[in-house]
Amino acid sequence: MFSRLMPREGRFFEYFDAVAVKVVEGARELVALMDDISQLEARRHRIDTIEKEADVITHDTLELLHKTFITPIDREDIHSLATRLDDILDLAQASSATVYEFDIQVLTPEAKQLAEINLRASEKVRDCVALLSNMENAQKILTLCKEIGRLEDESDHITRTAMARLFREEPDVRQVMKMRSVYERLEDMADRCYIVATIMEGIVFENA
Fold this sequence. Notes:
This protein has 208 residues and is mostly helical. It has a single domain (2-203), classed as Methane Monooxygenase Hydroxylase, Chain G, domain 1. It contains seven helices and no strands. The protein is globular and about 60 Å long.
């Protein structure tokens, strides 16, 4: 009874929403980079800026967690969700940095496909996070999480196909190694979206 009377800090959900919006912005910039390599420098700079903005929000979230006695959901879930949302943007940043550092001049259709899948998964993460403050949305959240898992499976399939094609058809060993790194970063980004989805599923199961 005592805990029910204590104030519950609601800004956590606002912070989650803000970072999730940044995740979509970063994913959208990554798609634009993959579509037009001539814009690499501008898009990479924009992704870096978005990632730094998200870092500030994540820091504020963790600082608030440290100061809050009664939280709306489990403290560990808040910490995990805050840091794992930020991880998605870290991988967007790593993907753009890999293209830049390896001086890649031509990107494959599969790299563009993977970036587009990451955008779709990021949008579903954002939509899911926006529903999280109200457990009456439990079924909608679980449906979105399932869709994120499906997109992660699709990313895995495209990555395996792309790797096979790369090793069979690309004669330049340096290009093979460069594109392999790009594929791995993009696949990791989809994996991070799925990790966030599993955290949100757990929150629903614990609180709905």
